[in-house]
Amino acid sequence: MLSSIIMDIRDVLAEFARLPGWLLYFGVPVLLLVAGLILAFVHADRAYPPVALFLGGVGLFLIASIAESLADYAVWAALYLAAAALARLLFFIPFRRRVKEDRSEEIYEAFHLPLEEEAPAGEAPPAMSAEEGELQLAHVDQLIEKLRAAELDPADRLELDAVARTLEGCRGKALTAGEQRTLNDCLSAVLKLTAKYSL
Fold this sequence. Notes:
This protein is mainly alpha-helical and 199 residues long. Helices cover 71% and strands 0% of the residues.
């Protein structure tokens, strides 16, 4: 069994020995440089060491098909280490990171914009008294506190913060029709989140 495995390995090495010598010497180091460039571009620093080790093992296997002495291994190892060091330097190039858009202002505007658009030119009769508004706000505040204690997704936490900021403009006063709609929109958003997280 062991002898058959050794024979198979020898056959594989014999097949690789038919490849051009320069390809066996320089192929894996060049491949490492390309992989290093890609990983540096996508800022995957942690993935580089296992990739370098894997390619190093592949390279040693390929060199075994043409190596005639330990000197051949030493020359290839020096070449590979030089390529590995050069590839590592690529991670110091300041490739631009993809900036994540800050959705907090966008979400806040979605709730706050109707208030500004529908602000009355003159005095409009309140649609909801301050007492009624405070009761509804107290209910929304309880739900918000439950949500803040839960582990929310980043986007949902941003939405919750935007709702809380919008509600500050509805406190301690009688609400106009536009403000009442905004309060209802906030309540609806909070109820959706509580349903999503089963609170």
